[in-house]
Design brief:
Strand order of the largest sheet: 1-2-4-3
Radius of gyration: 30 Å
Number of helices: 17
Number of strands: 6
Strand content: under 5%
Oligomer: single chain
Structural class: mainly alpha
Length: 490
């Protein structure tokens, strides 16, 4: 354990450096008041008398009062500001007792505090998130440890829970759960709270509205917060790096060999999730429907890809192992909640289902999504060609070859295909502008995390999206094995 202890000790050193920034700011705020107190005490005891000392006393007091008031205001904003919390689906222990038991046993093996709760995110990533200011109940107290309530929340990517086997998930989460050990140290926890408070205060200052004096006060608070953040940024970054290094070194004692093997599935899981969101889910979101079994769908898609392209070695053997989603009591309901959250995060859909925002299962996807897309595209084409009724294919070809005269001064003068493309483009632009107030640009998928692979369809999920993916959407550049590629992270 020499390496983990060395990393934790270095992390504590950097945490103390961050706290020294806080101490320096507090000292600077109290310095005028301390000087005024000394001068006033000297005058009261008869040691500092005279016109010069009296003027200095009044000057120090005049400076100390506004400085103290400003410092108190800044401190109040920092203390009251609440750091942003990642949108997740909270999993109670009653909904996943086996999953909580696995994480608790893993923490015992690593000799670290167990996370205070477990949450799922529609993302190919997993991390620890401090929610001490919001978490109530749903704790995983480690036996013999009194700091269970202070431990961070374990956020797990939902694709991992469906795509991985239980042993693979345990190996994947070992380095992450190991991070609760350094996080429990008082100095590291205090440094993190200080940095998060400054970041939240800066965000509050940017969003502040109201009269000019109020905005000026918040601008000053934001300036102070950013100044302190810059002063401690390098030490905070090194602290987190050392914490991660210590956690990774500690986790080498638990399922290290399995974790190396599971890493081979990271690219496959990421590509499958990205493909599902961009080629299957996004077209449905744009039509007012949200697939209610995204995680089961990515398992179906990855299973088909693995069998067809032979991407997973020993895939048939792995099918006999227990999938990690079996650790949930009701995987279908959890999948539905995660799918709705994904639609809200990546497309800007409503938080709750409604008449114009309805769930769709994979059996109904071709009729409710693909058919609607084709009909809307056909209607747009008819409109652009000024076709009435239900024209035949020959009539549409004649109209396309001839091309009606374009409308408007900015329309292309070439007619034919150019005019048609201009009309369809204008129609699409109007539709997008009409949806701009209610929807954000999609941000599909996430950064690659650690490992996984498996096959598990949630109850009631039905057939996967592989059969309908090609007809639902297109226009993505495809690489090896049919995976889509994106520029950067969504």
């Amino acid at each position: 354990m020499a390496v983990p202890e060395t990393g934790a000790r270095s992390a504590r050193d950097h945490a103390l450096a961050v706290l020294r920034v806080r101490g320096a700011a507090l000292g600077a705020a109290l310095l005028p008041a301390a000087a005024a107190v000394v001068l006033l005490a000297g005058g009261a005891t008869g040691h500092l008398r005279g016109d010069g000392w009296d003027a200095l006393r009044w000057t120090a007091a005049a400076v100390a009062v506004p400085v103290l008031a400003a410092a108190a205001g800044v401190a109040a904003v920092i203390a009251r500001a609440r750091p942003a919390v990642s949108p997740t689906v909270q999993i109670d222990e009653s909904a996943a007792p086996d999953l909580y038991r696995l994480i608790r046993d893993l923490a015992d093996r690593l000799d670290v505090p167990a996370p205070s709760a477990i949450a799922l995110t529609p993302d190919c990533d997993s991390w620890l998130e401090d929610r001490a200011h919001t978490t109530r109940g749903r704790r995983l107290p480690r036996p013999g440890t009194a700091r269970g309530s202070d431990a961070p929340v374990l956020v797990v990517g939902s694709p991992f829970l469906w795509w991985m086997r239980v042993a693979e998930l345990r190996a994947l989460l070992a380095p992450i759960v190991a991070g609760t050990g350094p996080s429990a140290h008082p100095d590291i926890a205090a440094a993190r709270r200080f940095v998060r408070g400054l970041d939240a205060a800066a965000a509050v200052a940017v969003a502040a509205r109201g009269p000019a004096p109020r905005r000026l006060a918040y601008d000053f608070t934001g300036w102070i917060s950013r100044l302190l953040l810059r002063a401690g940024a390098s030490h905070a970054a090194e602290m987190e790096r050392m914490v991660a290094a210590a956690a990774a070194a500690r986790a080498q004692t638990v399922d290290y060999g399995l974790r190396v093997v599971a890493q081979e599935q990271v690219g496959l899981a990421y590509a499958g999730w990205d493909r599902l969101l961009t080629r299957v889910a996004l077209p449905a979101w744009r039509t007012g429907r949200w697939p209610a079994r995204l995680d089961a769908g990515v398992v179906s898609a990855l299973t088909e890809l693995s069998r067809r392209d032979r991407l997973a070695e020993g895939f048939a053997t792995r099918l006999g192992e227990r999938p990690a989603c079996d650790l949930l009591e009701e995987p279908g309901e959890v999948d539905r909640q995660v799918s709705l959250l994904a639609a809200r995060l990546f497309h800007g859909g409503p938080a709750e289902p409604g008449p114009d925002w309805a769930p769709v299962d994979w059996q109904g996807y071709p009729e409710e999504v693909v058919d609607r897309i084709w009909r809307s595209e056909a209607a747009r084409l008819f409109t652009a060609l000024r076709a009435d009724g239900n024209p035949t294919l020959a009539e549409l070809v004649d109209r396309l070859a001839g091309g009606a005269a374009p409308d408007g001064p900015d329309a292309p003068s070439g007619g034919g295909a150019d005019a048609l493309a201009a009309r369809i483009g204008a129609d699409l632009a109007r539709e997008e502008a009409a949806r701009a107030g209610a929807a954000r640009p999609p941000r599909p998928a996430a950064a690659p995390p650690p490992p996984g692979a498996a096959r598990r369809a949630a109850p009631g999920a039905g057939a996967g999206p592989v059969a309908v993916a090609s007809g639902a959407a297109g226009g993505r550049r495809r690489g090896r094995h049919g995976h889509t590629h994106r520029r950067g992270r969504g």
